Structure formats: structure tokens, C-alpha cells
Predict the structure of Leucine-responsive regulatory protein.
Amino acid sequence: MKIDDTDRKILVALQRDASQSLDEIAREVGSSKTPVWNRIRKMRDAGVIGAQTVVLDAEALGFEATFFVLIRTSEHEADWQLKFLAALQARPEVQEAHRLAGDIDYILKVRVKNARAYDEFYQALISEVKVHNVTALLSMEEIKATTALPL
């Protein structure tokens, strides 16, 4: 799908606050409600816009610790990868997981209530899949977090 300037303005508005009314978005982008709705529908159908969700305050809900977990593995077979990916998908503490190029094979962003909860996560993970080396880095302060793309 080809995205034009009006589509970009709509996407910027939605990234900032997807709960806005169509009237508010249309006013912001200098259009009327029906064309804005049609553009949003087309972008959803094309996969440009995915699921809409709510951002929760993790600390307000008691999830005070964020760990970045670096994983090295000596296993690279398809069966191991499937088992590892299934283990990650089953763990709600894992907010993000990335396969990397370089010395580290995977990095996980794990959000838990405290260090004890991280240790429970770690023990469960290593009981499910074999890993060569795990390094956990505790985030002392979140300086910036966004899901917004620089449109």
C-alpha cells in the first residue's frame, strides 16, 4: 500500500492516541470523517495498522523490575528453536524477544515484580530449554519508551 501525507498524519494521530474520535482525527488532518475512516480501514486491511491496545503503567501495577536478558546458545537445530520460541511465547513476563546477529543469540525484555520473580522466570526457562549462557541486566531507570514510529 502506498502511504501519502494524509495517511501519515492519520497514523501520527493514532499513534499518539488511538482512542480519539474520527471527528478529532479528521479535524487534526484537515479532512472530513468519512474519508479518514476509509483511509483507516484501508490501512487496517493492508496490515499497516495492527491491533489497537491500551498501554498500562507497569509500576502502578507492581511490575517494578525490567531485565534485559542476553542468551547465548550452543543449540541451533530447528527442534531446539521451536521449543525455545514456544517457551518464550508461554511466558507472559517476556515483553519482547529478538534474535540477534553477533556474539549474543537472543535478547529478551522481561518485566517482573522483583528480583525473586525474575529468578522464578529464569529457573522455569532453563528447566524447559538448554541454553549455554544467560546474562541478566537490571534496568535502573527507563529513560525513553515508545511504540511510535518516526513518520
